[in-house]
Specification:
There is one protein chain. By secondary structure, the protein is an alpha/beta fold. It has 8 helices and 9 strands. A hairpin with a 4-residue loop joins strand 4 and strand 5.
Length: about 375
């Protein structure tokens, strides 16, 4: 009996010492383009809305809050776009709602995990010729220091992750020859022109059996249809810039509640771990005390039986305390859900002024961007009517 008790005590000591986590405060520095590149070779890059990752999420994972994930799916791409802008390695860097906006390079992402402590993203990169560049998973876990309000530098807690994504994109881009870059920009221009006048530009570009686009021939530089479509594309850039202003306004509006959610979520997770540890240790301690009491009760001495009663009673109190801690744990889980719901309310759509028109975007964030796509198609159709 006492050998079993010794084993339980040893096990409880090991459990109490386990579960330590390792975090790093080292931020990956952002690399920049150091060699001057001709403007004609700078590729435009677009970051698409991320997949919130809800389909593959565990239903029992309390850190997966649909309200937060859907908002993050719009916020994180714009954060990445701002990081890419600082590398000076690209032409126009924009967050866009879909591939209907034709640019040279596209960045897709999926949110695998995000809870304020750990952020994991799956990133996939391709270009306008339908060529896949690469796919890579990025993850980062931060500690309490990331949310220290006394820090002089108010950077994003996961800025190191965005820097690593930007660095990999820069490295891949630098491997392209100047001829490859020019060809890719030409394919983008031909795709845009083909969308407006397929009967004129289908002969200049084709799709290979593998799905990639290749240039067959180039239209004459003074082709009237090409010149008109180039002017349309310049106006399209203005629409995209207006849309980017909206993304920026959305991100600015979301910044405070989102960072507050991240910090509170981090603190809640810390509290959850501490409560689990206390609950486990107290419950194990209670079981050990009861076992010790039962063992003592087996002795014939009166003092042993009295000690047994005290030990069993103390063990029961410890188990009760452990169950109370589990109830407190549930309160923190509910707090996480409430935080996510409050964030969803904080990023409700607003009225947008565009081209002397007032556009009301209603619903949640996802519905708002869907309406943006419909609006862009209407604008495209109106411009096509003027050709």
């Amino acid at each position: 009996m006492f050998q079993w008790l010794t084993l339980l005590l040893a096990s409880s000591a090991l459990i109490a010492c386990g579960g330590q986590r390792v975090t790093s405060t080292i931020i990956t520095p952002l690399q920049q383009q150091t060699v001057q590149v001709e403007e004609s070779q700078l590729l435009d890059i677009a970051i698409l809305p991320f997949d919130p990752g809800l389909d593959d999420a565990d239903d029992d994972d309390i850190t997966v809050l649909p309200a937060v994930r859907n908002a993050e799916a719009q916020y994180l791409p714009n954060k990445l776009a701002a990081t890419l802008q600082q590398t000076a390695a690209w032409g126009a860097v924009r967050a866009v709602p879909s591939r209907q906006t034709i640019v040279d390079v596209y960045v897709d992402g999926t949110i695998v995990h995000s809870d304020g402590e750990t952020l994991t993203l799956d990133i996939s990169v391709s270009d306008s010729s339908n060529r896949h560049w690469y796919k890579k998973s990025y993850g980062e876990t931060v500690g309490q220091y990331a949310y220290d309000n006394s820090r002089q530098t108010k950077r994003d807690p996961f800025q190191g992750l965005f820097n690593r994504i930007a660095n990999d994109l820069l490295q891949y881009n630098q491997q392209l020859s100047s001829e490859d870059a020019k060809k890719l920009r030409t394919i983008s221009a031909l795709r845009f022109a083909r969308d407006f006048s397929p009967e004129t530009f289908n002969k200049h570009i084709k799709e290979t059996p593998g799905g990639q686009l290749e240039i067959l021939s180039l239209p004459a530089r003074n082709d009237p249809t090409l010149l008109r479509i180039e002017r349309i594309r310049e106006r399209d850039y203005l629409y995209i810039d207006t849309m980017q202003e909206y993304y920026d306004a959305f991100s600015l509006k979301m910044e405070r509640p989102y960072q507050a959610w991240r910090m509170n979520s981090y603190e809640e997770l810390e509290a959850v771990r501490e409560l689990k540890r206390q609950s486990r240790n107290r419950t194990i301690g209670g079981i050990i005390a009861i076992v010790a009491g039962i063992a003592a009760a087996g002795n014939n001495g009166g003092s042993s039986q009295s000690a047994a009663a005290v030990s069993i009673g103390a063990g029961a109190l410890l188990i009760k305390s452990g169950l109370a801690k589990k109830a407190e744990l549930q309160i923190h889980k509910d707090a996480l859900i409430e935080l996510g719901q409050s964030l969803e309310a904080a990023v409700e759509p607003r009225v947008i002024e565009l081209e002397n028109r007032t556009i009301t975007l209603t619903g949640n964030v996802e519905a708002q961007y869907a309406q943006w796509k419909v609006l862009l198609r209407d604008i495209y159709q109106a411009e096509r009517g003027g050709i």
